[in-house]
């Protein structure tokens, strides 16, 4: 069965700090990987996705993620965060079951 | 134009009541979903429909019944509401990639259900 682990539950950063959020998945086959963001009081929006090809994926708002197959990881990164990046971040995986399975989310707070 | 729209956005009701949440997407997608987000922000899939046919039905009480009158609509009806049903319910839709696999999901703004 597919599962997703996000080890950082709550991250607090100052503006301009670098960000890396961990995501590990458990699935033996081919996967599609996603990062979604949920700003306070809003719906989920896609940040970036990996289906195949270059394992370094660039998304919106300066975010990127790297798929490392040997580590079953898909960590999210941003070199310099802004106050407006304060949100909940969800890693998700879809295998051949066609179900998008979400991790438990990481709450990011960025202080000016 | 809202791509995935849900109504109502907020719903406060008493235990034991029956309520419905409606969802419509204008993206031309074939697949629609219901997800439940609990107070700890954990998102769990409940149902998925493809072209009006139920394809995913997670372990959800029988009190929850999805209905898809056409591929642009997926409604959620809940009977005999319980305190534990309080959550935010998100509708989503996706298109099919080559080979039939679903692509990225587009989410609605959520319907916050509070059961008193």
Give the helix/strand layout.
The complex is a heterodimer of chains A (112) and B (116).
Chain A lengths: L2 E3 L4 E5 L4 E3 L2 E3 L5 E7 L5 E7 L5 E3 L5 E5 L4 E6 L8 E8 L5 E3 L3 E6 L1
Parallel strand pairs in A: 2-12
Antiparallel strand pairs in A: 1-4, 3-9, 5-6, 5-10, 7-8, 8-9, 10-11, 10-12
Chain B lengths: L3 E4 L2 E4 L5 E7 L5 E7 L5 E8 L2 E5 L6 E7 L2 E6 L8 E8 L11 E2 L3 E5 L1
Parallel strand pairs in B: 2-11
Antiparallel strand pairs in B: 1-3, 3-8, 4-5, 4-9, 5-6, 7-8, 9-10, 9-11
Description:
The complex is a heterodimer of chains A (112) and B (116). With 112 residues, chain A is mainly β. Chain A is built from no helices and twelve strands. Chain A has strands at residues 3-5, 10-14, 19-21, 24-26, 32-38, 44-50, 56-58, 64-68, 73-78, 87-94, 100-102, 106-111. Chain A is globular, with a radius of gyration of 13 Å. Chain A starts with a strand and ends with a strand. The mean pLDDT of chain A is 92. With 116 residues, chain B is mostly beta strands. Chain B is built from no helices and eleven strands. In chain B, the strands form two sheets. In chain B, strands 2, 4, 5, 6, 9, 10 and 11 form a seven-stranded mixed sheet that branches. In chain B, strands 1-3-8-7 form a four-stranded antiparallel sheet, with no helix packed on it. In chain B, strand 4 (31-37) and strand 5 form a beta hairpin. The model of chain B has no long low-confidence stretch (mean pLDDT 90). The chains are: A mainly beta (112), B mainly beta (116). The A-B interface holds A 32, 34, 36, 38, 42-46, 49, 51, 88, 90, 94, 96-102, 104-105, 107 and B 33, 40-45, 48, 55-56, 90, 92, 97, 101-102, 104-110.
């Amino acid at each position: 069965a597919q599962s997703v682990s996000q080890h950082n539950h709550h991250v607090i950063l100052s503006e301009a700090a670098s960000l890396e959020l961990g995501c590990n998945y458990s699935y033996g086959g081919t996967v599609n990987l996603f990062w979604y963001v949920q700003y306070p009081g809003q719906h989920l929006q896609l940040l970036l996705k990996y289906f195949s090809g270059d394992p370094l994926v660039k998304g919106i708002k300066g975010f990127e993620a790297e798929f490392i197959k040997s580590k079953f990881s898909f960590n999210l990164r941003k070199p310099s965060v802004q106050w407006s990046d304060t949100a909940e971040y969800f890693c998700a995986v879809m295998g051949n079951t066609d179900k998008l399975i979400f991790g438990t989310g990481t709450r990011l707070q960025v202080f000016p | 134009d809202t791509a995935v729209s849900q109504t109502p956005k907020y719903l406060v009701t008493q235990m034991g009541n029956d309520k419905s949440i409606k969802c419509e997407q204008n993206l031309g997608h074939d697949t629609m979903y219901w997800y439940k987000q609990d107070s700890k922000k954990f998102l769990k899939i409940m149902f998925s429909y493809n072209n009006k046919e139920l394809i995913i039905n997670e372990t959800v009480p029988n009190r929850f019944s999805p209905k898809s009158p056409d591929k642009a609509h997926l409604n959620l009806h809940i009977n005999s509401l319980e305190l534990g049903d309080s959550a935010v319910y998100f509708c989503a839709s996706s298109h099919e990639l080559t080979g039939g696999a679903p692509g990225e999901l587009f989410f609605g703004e959520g319907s916050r259900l509070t059961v008193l």
